[in-house]
């Protein structure tokens, strides 16, 4: 049987963050999800249940659900209706068992466009083939909430939400593990990717250097060596002939010649008179800035600016706790109100004090004159820029070719997961020291014990302390490998607390190295992946799994999951495993009926 569920644009878009649909009340109480508040329809009741219908009742957004996705024991009819039912649990989507109807192409296209700019909305592409457009006249349902009677499931809501919280963390860990296995490659392919990416970045830096510093290419030999090294490695690894590197080398020689001519042309512009003019302007700017400082010191402005700077410094310190550059004080707090007052008073002073206002404008004018003196356009600028764009495009083509030829080192083996005691997940790892295996599993256990939170330096250090404490109680902690793990963790903790100058990750412990990649670069998979590539760490799945469990599935970005959801051979097996896993969670943590 098929059921139809009317939803809002907010509810639908949020469901592609979590790959599930929940009663509105769940969003306020559980530990995950994207609120997407600008979509939230304030007039929609925050009910404790979903309304299922055996008929499409019309509306702009309707989800068609197969009964295989539902718990039949939790479907209850609404009084005086043969076609309407209430359902108080979260419905988890599965490809092939769910469809999405839009009343118009504009609404469908609008949702798909908006999903592109929201990083957590990760499942639109996966289910886009299940989207269809059909206008169905809406049936009036204003009386639904009055006819449904008492909600027989409200007392179970906390248990249902607990199940969802557990599944979100476990699913995040499993999906991240699969992503790690599916993207792990051999050493030479990894080296090729790194060197080619570095070459692209080096050319971008050279472009800036030529245009800003107005100089020629001084290290041409290094670039030629890098191009030829990448070519040799590409031919050895991909085993396909290509002339792309030869074209890059030819384009680079043209850049060298044009950059030299550009430097000569600029040196002709930069006469002795211009040097004197620049010196004069810099001196004038310094004198005006001294006058500004005197005015600030003689008035309250210096005091106001210093206090504002202290608040900004505090916000930066707060940001470090959340892994951000800055964490602003919340609206309505004393510090927030004080900051707004200071900004207002400073702006008012700068506008009302005529001399101060004129000085600032004069300084801005001098800065522009200095910029005009140094940034001299030449007849070679456009040609050089075009060559750099061409080189960047070619290297992007090379990177795409590399990506197409990447083959995972291994297939995903789902039997390595032990789900006997949910929510804890233990892994079996072949050819791994017992100490590494034990430390990974205790770290994963501690992550499942912690609630979902923004990963911060404090979170990581606390996780290290708790995992190390658990690990020390195990026999493997006394082995040679166990002692090396403990020693490394102690040194890293001291490093993060500014007690030692550096730390080393033991290359003899490959699984532990992957764990350390998570500890060192926990604020995004791309940073972690780059760190692993540079260090030659092949087992990405273990660091990824810890990260995925820590942030939960809902917070995984589409840039991370795209590799999985673009390959149905990967995600179909993964989805089958995840659905059996969810059933296991429900069996081990049942709700009282």
Tell me the Rg in angstroms.
30 Å
Number of strands: 11
| Beta-strand percentage range | 5-15%
Structural domains: how many: 3
- Largest sheet strand order: 1-4-8-9
Protein name: Lantibiotic ABC transporter
Keywords: Coiled coil
Coiled coil: 271-314
Task: Describe the protein in words.
- The protein has 593 residues and is α+β, with helices and mostly antiparallel strands.
- It has 3 domains: 2-152, no CATH class; 176-184 and 411-588, no CATH class; 187-269 and 378-405.
- It has helices at 9-18, 24-29, 105-116, 124-127, 144-147, 157-183, 187-213, 220-238, 244-269, 272-298, 301-321, 334-352, 354-374, 381-405, 434-449, 457-472, 480-496, 510-520, 525-535, 540-551, 558-565, 568-588; strands spanning 2-6, 20-21, 50-53, 61-66, 75-77, 84-87, 91-92, 98-102, 131-133, 417-418, 426-427.
- The strands form 4 sheets. Strands 1-4-8-9 form a 4-stranded mixed β-sheet. Strands 3-6-5 form a 3-stranded antiparallel β-sheet, with no helix packed on it. Strands 2-7 form a two-stranded antiparallel ribbon.
- Helix 7 runs antiparallel to helix 8 (220-238), helix 11 packs antiparallel against helix 12 and helix 19 (525-535) runs antiparallel to helix 20 (540-551).
- The longest helix has 27 residues, at 157-183.
- Residues 147-153 have low confidence and may be disordered.
